[in-house]
Structure formats: C-alpha cells, structure tokens
Amino acid sequence: MVFLVPEDVHLGFNLAGIRELVCSPAELARTVRELMGEEQISVIVVDERLLGQTGAEELHVLEKNWSGLLIVLPAPGAGEVVHEDYAMQLIKKAIGYHVRLEI
Question: How does pLDDT run across 36-48, given as a tens digit for each residue?
Fold first, then answer.
C-alpha cells in the first residue's frame, strides 16, 4: 500500500508506518503508472487535492488496466456536512427548492 500526498501532508502516513510519496498534481499520472508497475503494490491511495480537472479521468483509465485497487482519499474537511433545520428540509421538499426565510 502506498499513499500519494501533497507536500503539506509529508510524514503524516510515514509516522504510522505506511509508505507515502509526495508528488504534485502534474506528477500524479506518471507516479501512479510507475507504482502500478511495482509487483508488491496492490493498493494506491491518492489524496483528492492532487486531482486536477483531468486527473480523475486519467486515473480511471489507468485503473482499468490494473488488477490492484486505486482509492481517492477525500481532502480534509471535505466530508463535513452542514445539517439544515428540519423545518427548512420540509419546506424544500414540499416546494421543490430551497427558500431562505428571515423571521
């Protein structure tokens, strides 16, 4: 298993004993291709922040020809969900779009 991370994450996974490589979005496709060629690697985890506009499409094409697992790790904070007020959820569901009410 290897993690591909941006510069600001350097040493984060290494501290846990997991191999990590720092790369830039421009180097991502080349690095993934090289890692897919290594026999001992069966899982590649890519930090979402390394994906450019075409990065995800390139990775999808590369993954089709590889027997391992390619995972995109969500960026920190990207998974935070803001919960709406229950009344607003009902109003949006009833009328089909979001309305901002000020009382």
Answer: 999 999 999 998 8
* Residues constituting the chain: 103
Closest listed residue to residue 53, CA positions, set 28, 33, 35, 30: 28
Whether the Cβ atoms of residue 4 and residue 28 lie closer than 8 Å to each other: yes
- Contact status, residue 70 vs residue 57, Cβ threshold 8 Å: no
Sign of the C-alpha dihedral computed for residues 52, 57, 62 and 68 taken in this order: positive
Burial of 4 (0-12, 13-18, 19+ CB in 10 A): buried
23-73 pLDDT per residue, tens:
988 889 899 999 999 999 999 999 888 887 667 788 888 888 888 888 888
Can you give the pTM of this predicted structure? Answer: 0.68
